[in-house]
């Protein structure tokens, strides 16, 4: 068995990895880098030249794990795509949403031909789905009658339909965590691990360099959000919460209404819109199918107003309200970006950030600012005075670093490959694993560097 990173090694973005076993080639995830453009945003598909590409297993529908899949299909039209049924349903929404953005982004780039909505329809129709823990065989065109690779998906607890992947062949077992979360959120419960031991764990390291004191349990952070929101409402202000349309929108919507039901928050109007509301429908349809904290919560039954029905931005400030707007990192030309510029002018209001902000995004500049400062959300905009409060929260959908270590402890692999993390995160995880398991082989994944697993 061979493992070859095509993207997502030493970085968070463009997650894409290749496993070859008995002349069968399997691509694990196929994402684009959300903060890069052109060919730099893509996985290194050129590394697959002369290699078999038989199947693509997609762990979940976030941009950095999915959005390059149509480009892979352009290069390998025969590739078999398998995912969970929930990821298949979400992929249809997110890929169509990405198509328009990519067409605009790459209009003048001769190196990339953006995929069309028709291509996405055909791709989604061709996707196979498998339920959690259901085993299936993968045997490529060059397999030559050997034992097939056996695969199964396991609930990763990250977003709806997210999965880890277990691969087994010729006595060797590989567990690819994908984006994994052992802790419960408001809607989703924590992940389900396979029975150990396994031979190799490919481990995400998102929070490897993050002190877990700064990542409190979801319920603790929800109480702090209620306290800060009530302070804003007490001075007749409104709260803007930038969120990712997939995952964070649904979890924060459920969190806000749970606080209202408990009486911890007043029942002020809540505004949502766009792709996030469509994704809520998929969550609702699957609330009795996958493990959730409370299947009685139906997101679209929660009273919401439409952001796009607001004619004048000042209407948000006539009385207190909460606005959940995409994107989570306040990327330029998104709903949250436009509203952030308006919110910064409001002395009584506040912007609550609820997740990780990449250093190269407007959201990072925002979360680093405080009332009374001046801020340039982008290099092309003039400085803007910060009149509102900016309060960061950490509602994480990824495992804390101690939880990641517990995965290694429980599955007891002989080899660990570290992916999906920046350099400090990778180094912390590698050092911590070796301190606990000195005999274990630990690899830092590098794009283009092949690792022999067995």
Please explain how this structure is put together:
The protein has 454 residues and is of the alpha/beta class. The chain has 2 domains: 265 residues, Ribonuclease Z/Hydroxyacylglutathione hydrolase-like (Metallo-beta-lactamase, Chain A), CATH 3.60.15; 177 residues, Rossmann fold, CATH 3.40.50. Helix content is 28%, strand content 20%. A 7-stranded mixed sheet has the order 6-5-4-3-2-1-22. The chain has a 7-stranded mixed sheet with strand order 7-8-9-10-11-20-21, covered by helices on one side. Helix 3 runs antiparallel to helix 4 and helix 3 packs antiparallel against helix 7. The longest helix is centred in the N-terminal third of the chain and has 21 residues. The termini are close together.
The neighbouring-strand order within the major sheet is 6-5-4-3-2-1-22
Total number of strands: 22
Using the alpha-carbon principal axes, give the shape.
globular
What proportion strand?
15-25%
Radius of gyration: 22 Å
Largest pleated sheet: 7 strands, mixed
CATH class category name of the largest domain: Alpha Beta
The residue ranges in which pLDDT falls below 50 over 5 or more consecutive positions are none
Mean pLDDT: 95
Q: Structural class per helix/strand content?
A: alpha/beta
Which architecture of the largest domain per CATH?
4-Layer Sandwich
User: Helicity, in percent?
Assistant: 25-40%
CATH fold field value of the largest domain: Metallo-beta-lactamase, Chain A
- What is the domain tally? 2
* CATH superfamily caption of the largest domain: Ribonuclease Z/Hydroxyacylglutathione hydrolase-like
Count of separate DSSP helical elements: 11
